[in-house]
Protein 1
Amino acid sequence: MQKLVYILFSLLALIPLPLMQSIGSLLGRLGFHMASNERKRTTENVHSSKLTANDQETEKLVKAVFAETMKSGLELTIAWTRSSQHIVSLFKEVHGWEHIDAAIERQEGLLLITPHLGNYDLAGRYLSEKLPFPLTAMYRPPKISWLESVMNNGRVRDNGYTAPANMQGVKQVVRALKNQEATIVLPDQVPGEGEGVWATFFDRPAYTMTLASRLAIMPKVTTLFFCGERLPKGRGFALHIAPIEGTLTGNRQQDAQVINHNVEKWVTRFPAQYLFGYNRYKSRKAKTNS
């Protein structure tokens, strides 16, 4: 099954990017009308974000989110099967690379944080190809088990490695940072019970991971947010990199809030490209931080 899926993905990845994204837009429009539960959750999350002024703007943004989400799904075929050199060629703009150069000059590990925004798989592959040392990305196995090997084969190549989202993976990431390498963490994944704290996200309580902030306060670590923005009309992508805003103190509650505020600012920049359909507010039992 894995071999068959890889062949299928490889063939799909040959579709020119503008055409692939046009297909994604069409599938997104179909999904908006057919996936009622997903549409309801996305609409609720967009409404909670207060990024739209009225119901008409909310519906317009929700439709755009569906289209961009489907584009991201199709683009995984590129991220997992095309060469790193081809993926690098898709990035037409890079903003903020000087922050990475400064960290390398200081001989510090790089903690690279990206929300579910834009195409983080392609952006991660670009970073992996351009950095002078290995990059380790934390991941959770996909719900479809036979996709995992295809995903890992696409990510674990060249200078790229993966670490599972468990204690073993955390140790792997810490070791990479101590070795002055790079790692990627998605801060808006809902953590397991007991692995997070409650912090507001767009004015709603969200069970928030503490891993990102704990890694960020390690000695000799530079923390940067990044995003792989999808440019219009199939032109390619733009990589945006910027330092984390706010002060991390080591207080789990306060630091989780700082991370959430940063995610909010990035989502506000590219709202249509955020995965608003993700169940960010799923419950993790009582709202306590013990």
Note: Strands lie at 91-95, 109-113, 135-139, 160-164, 182-185, 196-201, 204-209, 221-230, 237-243.
Protein 2
Amino acid sequence: MSLKDRLVEDMKAAMKAKEEGKVRLSVIRMVRAAIKNTEIDKKIDLSDTQVIEVLAREVKMRRDAMEEFSKAKRPDKVQELEEEVTILMEYLPQQLTEGEIRELAKEIIAETGAQGPKDLGKVMGVISPKTKGRADGKLVNQIVRELLGS
């Protein structure tokens, strides 16, 4: 079953769950709308890999918003966004741990022969496709910078 089909099935289940499924239903509808908008913009039918990219973008937007709401001292909104992120994470592949990202970064640094901070772009160019949808880009960048000694 494709991710889009799974979203449709989960949306139906959330509708049947009435009150308990309200947050899940709204999150699934928002994601399906984002997927549809991307399909319309690009004039293509998105593959599961592309759907994962849309899901990762939605998670990132919510995490960024959570930061802003915590700065504004709005714990109610932060909690709401945490629930949405939890629901979205169910549709993303298993996330890489910090240790796994560190190991992957070390391998790529060795492969590319990166020497220092000036080679950050070279390393990020190789590691980004391997971690797309499976790790937060900020975390990956932070670990690579740390390993390159910048």
Note: DSSP finds seven helices and no strands in the chain.
